[in-house]
């Protein structure tokens, strides 16, 4: 479970180039944080997260997409 604030800070840490999106490469660069994202979104890997929740199919996850994913997994408090 995470609050929106915790998600935002997790997101900012993962978004290394600060372009407002988390790319699959950024997920792979931080395996520990990436595992937290997987558990909060009930996905088994960064690939699965992208397949299921990259709704505009740009190959990266925005904060809105991440929030939707965590909400759908019922892990947003
Ligand atoms: Ca980025
Ligand atoms: Ca996207």
Automatic annotation (TrEMBL):
PROSITE patterns found in the cross-reference section: EF_HAND_1, EF_HAND_2
Domain of life: Bacteria
Segments forming domain EF-hand: 2-37, 41-76
Pfam families the record matches: EF-hand_7
GO molecular function: calcium ion binding
Record-linked Gene3D superfamilies: EF-hand (1.10.238.10)
Coiled-coil parts of chain: none
Protein's name in the database: EF-hand domain-containing protein
Species of provenance: Anabaenopsis circularis NIES-21
Lineage: Bacteria, Bacillati, Cyanobacteriota, Cyanophyceae, Nostocales
């Amino acid at each position: 479970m995470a609050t929106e604030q915790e998600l935002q800070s997790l997101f900012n840490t993962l978004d290394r180039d600060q372009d407002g999106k988390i790319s699959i490469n950024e997920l792979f660069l931080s395996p520990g944080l990436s595992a937290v994202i997987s558990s909060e979104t009930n996905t088994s890997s960064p690939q699965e997260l992208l397949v299921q929740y990259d709704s505009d199919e740009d190959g990266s996850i925005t904060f809105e997409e991440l929030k939707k994913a965590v909400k759908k997994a019922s892990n947003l408090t």
